Amino acid sequence: METFVTIEHALQIAQHTPIQYSTEWIQLRGANNRILAEDLSSKVDDPPFDNSAMDGWAVRSIDENRVEVGITPAGTPSTEIHQGEAIRIMTGAPIPKGADAIVIVEDGINGKAHTNFIRRRGENLRKGEITLTAGQVMTPATISLAATMGHETVPVCSKPRIAVISTGDELVTPGHELKEGQIYESNSYGLCALLEKIGCIPVYHKVVEDSLGGLRKALNSLDCDAILTSGGVSMGEFDYVRKLMEEEGDLHFWKVAMRPGGPPLFGTWNGTPLFGLPGNPVSSHLVFMMLVAPWLSPETPLTKTIRVRMKDPVKGAPGKVCFRRILISTDGDELVATTHTHQGSGNIHSMVAHNGVTVLPPDTDADAGDVITALWYQ
Ligand code: AMP
Ligand code: MG
């Protein structure tokens, strides 16, 4: 077990215990945002036949005077022309045998003959050519390409099922009255939504009280590919996730040099990977963005790294990378950032009032006017 590791090293440790993805074949229409599990090659040449790029006439470029002898709409078999003949042709229709050029409809039948208005068989793709590779995220454009290549179904990685368990005696689900000392449970809501965003299936488990027995029972009841817990990983008397993982699980790391989000842990419970996230709502959210998402789905990053000019000063953290919440906007050609709400790790509103975080290296503050690295999450 390692402790107080850098973010990069924490990710490396977690990556030694990856999720096992299986492959499923799904209808291409349902493939948006899914991760391709195998390379895809074209079943056909694209285009499959020489065809016209314009509406006009298919002609022989050497002819000067032409007579129209027929019409070829798109979707019909190819015809044939001889000396002095022209065929009315529509965009996408096959070029008649004997024709080597297109006269566009605007120019009239004896207008200029363009050889470059013929789209040649296979000029975009050759049959058997691989254009999409395993690991790529399916997007509207890749889906369209897969259809062009003749694929009705595609092999994609099965969505991993990730259990989400919040721990804490003080937590009450919204919809119930708060009694003294209680707060609304919010982390499981955010974590489930984050999981959906990166293509996983969240498996919600009801809040578990702070007890070794309750937690052990909950963990043993799960049927999932990985587990996310929230709360109970710090130094407190009742931080039972850490205690249980130390005593009965297999702990790989505990504590990461980041603020907020210092005390996360990673290990396995009966062979199932488990991320123990801190309970403070900003911390659990940021640890998910920095560690869990890159571990589960590196293809769908939740943040974009940018350089930004600070308009307000921001304080770093001793020995830790500091993620201050900032509001990023454009100012002319430049990205600039300000800070607004208070930055406590318990204040989830700070993640909503801002759209990014600083990436201040350990022991580094930034003054107004400094250009720093930041992560943009909206
Ligand atoms: P812990 O990590 O369990 O020590 O919790 C740290 C802080 O986060 C405490 O103030 C908890 O009340 C709060 N907290 C823990 N879990 C949640 C949760 N699921 N939703 C909202 N706040 C939480
Ligand atoms: Mg707690």
What do you see in this structure?
The structure is a single chain. This protein has 378 residues and is of the alpha/beta class. Helices cover 18% and strands 31% of the residues. The chain has 7 helices and 26 strands. It has helices at residues 7-15, 140-148, 187-197, 212-220, 240-248, 281-296, 349-353; strands spanning 2-5, 23-27, 40-41, 51-52, 56-59, 67-72, 85-89, 101-104, 118-119, 130-132, 153-157, 161-167, 171-172, 183-184, 201-208, 226-230, 250-256, 258-259, 265-269, 272-277, 304-310, 321-322, 325-331, 334-338, 356-358, 371-376. A hairpin with a 2-residue loop joins strand 19 (265-269) and strand 20 (272-277). It is elongated, with a radius of gyration of 30 Å. The two termini are 35 Å apart. Residues 168, 231-232, 279 line the site of magnesium ion.
Helix/strand structural class = alpha/beta
Bound molecules: adenosine monophosphate, magnesium ion
Q: Strand share of the residues?
A: 25-35%
Beginning-to-end CA distance, first to last residue: 35 Å
Short description:
Helices cover 18% and strands 31% of the residues.
How is the topology of this model organized?
Layout: E1 2-5, H1 7-15, E2 23-27, E3 40-41, E4 51-52, E5 56-59, E6 67-72, E7 85-89, E8 101-104, E9 118-119, E10 130-132, H2 140-148, E11 153-157, E12 161-167, E13 171-172, E14 183-184, H3 187-197, E15 201-208, H4 212-220, E16 226-230, H5 240-248, E17 250-256, E18 258-259, E19 265-269, E20 272-277, H6 281-296, E21 304-310, E22 321-322, E23 325-331, E24 334-338, H7 349-353, E25 356-358, E26 371-376
Parallel strand pairs: 1-17, 6-7, 12-15, 12-16, 13-14, 16-20, 18-22, 21-24
Antiparallel strand pairs: 2-11, 3-10, 4-9, 5-7, 5-8, 17-19, 19-20, 21-26, 23-24, 23-25, 25-26
Helix pairs in contact: 1-6, 3-6
Bound molecules: adenosine monophosphate and magnesium ion.
